[in-house]
Structures are given as C-alpha cells and as structure tokens.
UniProtKB/TrEMBL annotation:
Similarity-based family: Belongs to the cytidylate kinase family. Type 1 subfamily.
Originating species: Mangrovimicrobium sediminis
Domain Cytidylate kinase: 7-221
Its EC number(s): 2.7.4.25
Stored Pfam families: Cytidylate_kin
GO biological process: nucleobase-containing small molecule interconversion; pyrimidine nucleotide metabolic process
Protein name: Cytidylate kinase
Predominant localisation class: cytoplasm
Recorded name of the encoding gene: cmk
Amino acid sequence: MTPVPVITVDGPSGAGKGTISHMLAEHLGWHLLDSGALYRVTGQACLIEGVSWDDHPAVTEVARHLDVRFQVDEHGEVRVAYKGQDVSAAIRTEEGGRGASTVAAIPSVRDALLARQRDFLQPPGLVADGRDMGTVVFPAAPLKFFLTASAAERAERRYKQLISKGGSVSLARLLKDIEERDERDSTRTVSPLVPAKDAIVIDSTATPIEEVFGQVLQAVTESGLA
Ligand SMILES: Nc1ncnc2c1ncn2[C@@H]1O[C@H](COP(=O)(O)OP(=O)(O)OP(=O)(O)O)[C@@H](O)[C@H]1O
Ligand SMILES: Nc1ccn([C@@H]2O[C@H](COP(=O)(O)O)[C@@H](O)[C@H]2O)c(=O)n1
C-alpha cells in the first residue's frame, strides 16, 4: 500500500509557516495539522482548569485528556474549542504563545500529544506545521521545509498583524517575546527547534510571501509528490 504523503513545515514564530502551510494544504487539497494550536490549547486548558504551567504531572494529565475540537466556521476561519468553549482568540494572544512554549518544553506533554498529531495523517495527504514535524513527529516525511527570518522581521510582521486586527502592542515587547520564545524553543532538551538534516531551508527575511510559496511549490513539483 502506498504511504499517505506528508509535507512538513517547521520554523520559529512568525516565519510564515502557518500562512504557507494553509496555502499549500488548500492548493493540494490535503489536510492541515497546526501542531502549535495543540500546545496553545494545552496552555489555555491549564488556565481554565487552574493548573500551573510549572506543575508538570498536572499539565501532562491535561494534555492526555485534552478535549479539543477544530471546526471551520462559515467565514472559512478555524474555530478551536476546549470542552465546548471557544478559545480561538485566547490561544492567539502573546500570553497564549508563552503558555504554549512553556508547556511544550515538558517531555511528558510532548509524548502525550504525539499520537494525536500522527492521527492527522489521512488520505490524500497532510501538510504539518510546527517546530518538530520533520525531526520527531514525521521523521520519514518525503519533503521537509524549514522557514526562517530574522527576529526583527518576524516581530515587525506580528506587529502589523496585531495592529490590523485593532490591537495595541509595542514592537519592542513583541521582539522581546519572540526572542524569548526562540530561546526556549531552541534550547529545550526535547524536540528542540532545529531544521531536519534533509529540510529545505528558506529564509524569507527579504522575500515576499508569494515568492516563498513559489519556491515551496517548485520543490513540491520536483519531488513528484503532487
Ligand atoms: N515572507 C513574508 N513576508 C511578509 N509577511 C509575511 C511573510 N511570511 C509571513 N508573513 C506574515 O507574517 C505574519 C505571521 O505569519 P504566520 O502566522 O504564517 O507565521 P508562523 O510561522 O505560523 O508563526 P507562529 O508559529 O507564531 O504561528 C502573518 O501576518 C503573515 O501574513
Ligand atoms: N510542533 C510544535 C509546535 C509548537 N510548539 C510550541 O508551541 C508554541 C506555539 O506554536 P505556534 O506555532 O502556534 O506559534 C511554540 O512557540 C512552541 O513552543 C512546539 O513546541 N512544537
């Protein structure tokens, strides 16, 4: 039987993984795994359940029994519910990102979420967005990308994104958050943020998103996957 194909897209926060993964999954008609959302919901679920992010056994229990649902609404937006409660906005805040990267550094939490992530691999194929998709979750993926950009450029992008949604944020604060998250994600002992040895690395610091997508599509075509 031919294995179900998976394309992995890893990289640091704000590198464009979500945007590119979404475009690619839509273009190919494949499923999409937003693995960061699982860590974000775990962090948020801890807040809801009154569990401290530092209480590793309790956070692991939360991750093991995570009652999470992803649903596309009438505007085509993905809504995320924890125990039936819409947490879509809460998990996308900077605090949501901090919570995610704190709980994501706990090895037993990563173990608890591993099978759930692999369950997303369904025909006709999967685009998997995260930090360790190509190194740990789908190490045998036939095509892997690692997107990156300078921290200053990524903070600027996040700033524009938040301002366009009517938020008020400080660019300096965003840059500090991004640098701290990079540090936590790349220095943790389990599944640190590193490119897989066989990943195609794309630095988009000075490259518009359409051009990045063009490079990705070209590699997909050359791989013969689609
Ligand atoms: N090459 C690019 N040029 C300009 N803007 C970009 C580029 N790539 C992404 N962006 C913009 O940067 C913002 C962040 O992108 P995106 O959410 O895809 O990043 P991400 O890597 O998934 O981040 P996170 O891991 O934090 O979810 C979005 O507003 C997106 O439109
Ligand atoms: N495979 C992954 C995905 C995410 N994380 C952690 O979650 C944080 C939030 O991820 P986003 O992609 O939604 O920004 C991220 O900073 C990582 O700490 C992870 O560890 N592994």
